[in-house]
């Protein structure tokens, strides 16, 4: 099937649940978020006298069948219709990590796996952090919070990989300088 015939083919819903739907358009199958939901992904930078640190989380991910090291994130509007990306990011950061951001700024909208999913996320930078609690998310999330110096991040990620953790692709954002030499 040519590109034009795929583009003009009707979209059919194969299956739809509360948060995701499987669609088919021509010969192409893909997944998208139900109800137009998108995510906010948070690069939380905590500055101190010893250098900048990033706040990461470890969380079991059912599709992977293992714990994943990742940036804090959450769905926008899943709990409150009309919620802004910034409000959602602030809420998720506090819930997952126990940090409150004094400043949150949008860094743009991105697509995580465009060959498989239409899922998009807005990347935000959270700064001026204050520790207000333990974090950990909701009881079913069982999140472990990690505060890692940016200068030590490549070694930290390598150690977590050796421990058997999955590594979220969005960490490439922070690893790029070390990977590109």
**Rough outline:** globular
User: What is the structural class?
Assistant: alpha+beta
- Uncertain runs: none
Give the biggest beta sheet.
8 strands, mixed
Number-wise, the strands total: 11
What does this structure look like?
The strands form 2 sheets. Strands 4, 5, 6, 7, 8, 9, 10 and 11 form an 8-stranded mixed β-sheet that branches. The protein has a 3-stranded antiparallel β-sheet with strand order 1-2-3. The longest helix has 13 residues, at 85-97. The mean pLDDT is 93. It has helices at 3-8, 85-97, 153-162, 172-180, and strands at residues 11-16, 20-25, 28-33, 38-48, 51-61, 66-70, 73-76, 99-111, 120-131, 144-149, 166-167. The protein has 181 residues and is of the alpha+beta class.
In brief:
By secondary structure, this protein is of the alpha+beta class. The chain has helices spanning 3-8, 85-97, 153-162, 172-180, and strands at 11-16, 20-25, 28-33, 38-48, 51-61, 66-70, 73-76, 99-111, 120-131, 144-149, 166-167.
